[in-house]
Amino acid sequence: MLLNIPNVLTPEQVVEARKLLDAAEWVDGKVTAGYQSARTKDNQQIPDGHPAARQVGEMIVKALGQNPLFLSAALPLQVFPPLFNRYSGGQSFGTHVDNAIRQVPGTPHRIRTDLSATLFFAGAEEYDGGELCVEDAYGVKIVKLPPGHMVLYPATSLHHVKPVTRGVRLCSFFWIQSMVRDDGRRSILFDLDLAIQRLSRDHPEHPSAVQLTGVYHNLLRQWTEM
User: How confident is the model at residue 132, as a pLDDT?
Assistant: First the structure.
């Protein structure tokens, strides 16, 4: 399931974040790439632990914790501290798949990367190219979103970033370990949750709302890993 999540950050938060990110130090993006990814990765990143990365990362994680669409779709158990990259001057990232396990910097903890997320900070009019292309069973999905919007997709997906031929593409990227490992099961729960919400909104007294809510939670009990 690939899902666009609008307005994760407000316009004011985007402006604040960009000021911090623009003033930060940037290094070669290969510092966080695995062996195969390093061969095709050409971008810049803010180093782990940089104050700007921590501050904007905390802003993102807090916003996600208050976003009903993200919580329903991801069923997050852990969110990897957000990282930040930028592309310019023809830089790109070739086709790759994200590492299955990530060590949380500065800790002994690891997370399983069930979902990948990219949150955009630069508007589409600010740069040419730079589309995120995600492959699934139905073809290639092309993603280029407004500032403050985010795309969520299975970390098992092959994906790449097209060359940026004008301007600067600025994004945050990170991973989520879900309480429900399987993408198909997460999709079922997400669809069921949305249906329950619509039924409760349109027919608040309908007894099926309670029955379907029970089905949702019983499936969640069976499929959750904590």
Answer: 98
Q: How far apart are CA 66 and CA 169, in angstroms?
A: 26
For 16-54, the DSSP string reads HHHHHHHTS--EEGGGG--HHHHTTB--EEPPTT-HHHH
Distance CA 148, CA 167 (A): 18
Beta bridge partners of 159: 96, 134
Q: What tens digit of pLDDT does each residue of 185-199 get?
A: 999 999 999 999 999
Whether 130 and 162 have beta carbons less than 8 Å apart is answered as yes
Q: How far is CA 43 from CA 39, 101, 147, in A?
A: 12, 22, 19
Task: Give this prediction's pTM.
Answer: 0.93
What is the rounded CA–CA span in Å between residue 166 and residue 126? Answer: 8
Residue 48 confidence (pLDDT): 84
CB 3, CB 187: distance < 8 Å: no
Stretch 141-150: mean pLDDT: 98
Yes or no: say if 115 and 155 are a contact pair by the CB < 8 Å rule.
yes
